[in-house]
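fold-stage: in
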Amino acid sequence: MDRKHVMGAGLAFALSAALLSACGPSEKTNQADTENAALSGPVSGQAVLDLFLGEWDCEATTFETPGIPAKKETIRLAYTRILGGRFVEESGEGGHGLRLFTYDEQKQCYFTWFFSQYVQEDIAEIGHWDNGTRTLDWTRVPGKYSTMQFRFPNKDAIECDVRLNDDAGNAVFKADYKMSRTKEAGAAKPFDLESRGIPPDFTGERRVLDQLLGNWTNDVTLRTLSPAMDEKHATEKQVIRRVIDGYFVQQNAESSLGTSAMILYAFNPKSGRYRLWAFLSDWGGMEVPYEGTWNAAAHTMDWASPAPGEYPMTMRHRFSGDDAFDYTFWVKDPGGRTVNEGIFKMSRVGGKPQTSMGPDGTSPPTSTTYRLISIGGEPVPCSPLHEGQRVPEVSGGSMTINSDGTFSGGIQFTNPNIVVPGAANKTPGTYTREGDTLTMKHPGAGYTRATISGDTFTMDNEGLLFVYQK
């Protein structure tokens, strides 16, 4: 089998998360061999990416561009190796973005992808390392659209500039970052990207992907039809969840063959199509995402590459109910003959996630309302002490947490003439959730942290604890 045929099959396995490659056993980066090599002296290959590993405080300066306001903030970032060590993942506290890095040994260059509610990468960015200046420079093909440079002045500092332009050369994103190490590589853990709620403006088209959510087992059959017949079988455990403020669906798969994969799905409202990016421990990542269309009448989703190449692959998801679906891929040779195919049968493990809805998107979200019982340890009504001063007497309050990722609530003062801006005046907002911890975003204000324990909801507002109960 020639190399192009092998790559076609490998890509198909990535998309299916079957993780059975015609290239043989999984290739894994030995992190122990490279972890210390990147800290001083000349480095190359995967060792360059070890410069990122660890946890960092990042001072981010975002400049105003159309649709994006100027702001300065400090965020916490973690860089860890995933998928057998082939990729480095950048995750941020709060789960608002994801960046992946890898090194392609054959092409001898680096690739990176970034995903957030504002960005869906049309194409991977290509990076080149300069040992003399200790810089990692990135551009998008053909190069004029995006530039990004990482500088590594020492092992405990990273600087980065990002400039993103549209096709006409207009700036659409501009930011500078300065990072200081807080944890070494071995002590860093990735931040959870899961979003248990979804933005309130999501349409039925976005909600189609909810059919994928949950825990699954996958029975896999892969067939090579040409030049010789061969058949392989495997099983998988898959976890599929909404991540990155709910704008993406992430499929994580672990195969019985010891390989792993991450697949990201999203809906692009500009094109009206769905997108799919695959990242495989024994293969690599997709330079161009696949595009999909949804057939509501047939309950199917069809996928194809916008740049199919010599060995094009197509794939179809077919949904037959809440607890099962299947998908099939086909790889064809230049003559149009099918040379590879795969059949994947997914069975749900456990119940359907709370955020799941049917493809019409009409199921109403659930809500839980909590009543304010104390502020700063003082039972309501009270005049709590905050920063050395007593605030006006609070007579009561409530907080409603919706399953769609929104919340609303406020407090009432004994004196009805008192007006307090922000969350105290029933301003609605959005939240992301990691286990029992919520990160709450108030419009026009910053973030607050809250926890849910049984029937108790506790919100930390600048060190002042607001305790609510059902």
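fold-stage: in (second)
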Amino acid sequence: MTALLLEIPDHSPVARMTVCGHPTPLLIRHGTVTAVASPHTAPPLGTWELGPGARTAHAFSFLAGDTLLLYTDGVMEARGPTRTFYPLEERVAHCAKSSPTALVHHVRQDLLAHTRGALCDDAALLAIQRSPTAPLSGLHLGDLVHGVGRQVRTHEEHQQTV
């Protein structure tokens, strides 16, 4: 099982993440897309015993107006009819100036077009945009989560559509 732990403090331009075998998020800043690299990547959870400090958090800047796109491996490993992997970073670059909701919608639609609707693994997307406004008091989770898309198909369901 993989995991990505993400800490985004309210009043700091620095976020921290701990990666345990999970894909790292894409950072969209001023229309430019970059993968957030983590020099400290731990193996997936439960693969072996780790000592204290083996899972280290990595700090990176997350400024007002930035968007993070989190995704599961089912997105980046989705294959098209010619067995090519889905080019996530390239496709996100085409809609990098979109709102978080539009970004998730576009990537989901494009992913389903790439695979002709036949996802063989779970695929989840979450876009988080850093707001330039003050504290988050009084907001609900629905106000913060701008878009989530998910589709799960079993191997049997996939075979029925082929």
